[in-house]
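Input:
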Amino acid sequence: MIEKKYRQVVFLSGKGGTGKTSFAASFSNLLENKIIVDCDVDAANLYLVLNPYIKSGTKYFSGIKAEIDASKCNQCGLCEELCRFDAIKDYTVDKISCEGCGFCVRACPQKAIDYNLNASGYYYEGNLEDGTPFFYSNLKPGEGNSGKLVSVLKSEALKKVDENTEWVIIDGPPGIGCPVNASLAGSDFIVMVTEATSSGFHDLKRLINLIKIFEFPYGIIINKYDLNEEVTESIKKLAEENSISILGMVPYEQDFIRSLQEGKTVYEYSPKMREQFKEMWSNINLQIKYQ
Amino acid sequence: MIISVSSGKGGTGKTTVATSIAVSIANSVYIDCDVEEPNGHILLKPEYTSVTPYKKLLPEIDTEKCTLCNKCVEVCEFNALMNAGNEIILFDELCHSCGACAYFCPEKCITEVGKVMGYVRKGKSTTGDVEFIDGILNIGEETATPLIKEVKKQTIPGKINIVDSPPGTACSMVETVRESDFCILVTESSPFGLSDLKLAIDVLKIINVPFGVVINKYDERYKATEEYLKENDILLLSKIGIDKKIAEDYSRGIIPVLKSEKIRKDMIEIVEKINSLINSKQKV
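Output:
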């Protein structure tokens, strides 16, 4: 087996809107020999600032949904009775509620129910201007199984790894549920982007407890640290207690939203922020080297 | 009446808007369905009157009776059961509690037992006259939707139920907003906000829930959101200007309306607009 040379870094936050994507995008500007994956599969944004050229889109099948053949159905009602997801009413399947467990398919005495492969979105492969492979996807509105799509997307991206690849950068989804877990698998380091608000702190603590289960190394960036210095102190204390490093602290800064409005990364847009991004990345690099 | 508050993108101000509306109007209930990362309690500071564990059903196999026939493994579409040679092993985080394994087991040796996956909390807000309900998912649990369903069952008829949604447009968002009488979509003045707003609108059209938009952190330099709303004939409910003070208050767990009479009026107006919209539809 070839020794793994690259490092897989995932950006997470727990709470949404703390700046994951802005940081992931800006750090991407700094790095060479990288692959970038946007794992926020139901609300992908990274492509809006990295402007990749999309080469191909592939249909993604998440699984199966039940479908009742009305010509065979004798309306016995067993399927409706058995379904735990309230997905069957009046002998038709509500495709949004159906989780594809296949219980009804197997139980139907008339064999009137069958599986139907369910296309639940697309994933896209493209390149940034410098040739960097870029992956993102588009889950069909309201689809479940986003964790599986994250895994598919990542495995597609990892196929692009070659002997020069140094970094795989993953922009993760908010929350602490299945797509987050799928984003985490195989990571070498997790950058948690939090903000100095009570909610940011609350959600960070829950995320940390999740990460502890998997024992991944991680560090914390405090965004908008000057919004509330007390919360910032609490975050620092929490980091200290857990022997976790604070990778950087960034003030509440209009440049974040301004850069987005112009379709640029903060790194590209704001010369004054550049040094800080470089410094934060060297902190991340150090952590990864000496973990 | 059920008014859900959703966004697509995280961090646009769903919880700020939802709690602000809840404390501005009479007869309100605030329900937090963002069970992975619930934040409403930080702003509404409830005194809890009940905390009820919510259990999901998991199969338990009687190893004495089990003949390792493999039927349960075959019928499980989620690969939650595996035949390890001398016993059947359950990966409980993969289990969707569909019940197929227990139903099809020829030896009838599978019983379903409850495992606590989270809690439903109820109480009364101490920052306003608001009934408070939320759900909080245990850390490590993968699937939020069963708990969201349970939280949604707690809506109080005859009151105005403000339901706070998780971000995104996937299953947990849909579970939260479906069956709402109206959905308020909170966006922000940025391409990220707009892109995710469009995705959220696609969802609401599919599930047939009427909606309107609040532009939070409104910046008049960014015109694209308003242009999009106008072109597509989408109702703009309100704009809340970008203001570091609001962000600072939020960071301390203070609901902005408690400081600003203007925002309070705007919140009441939003509900009035929704009310008249729903009433006019009912007449037609």
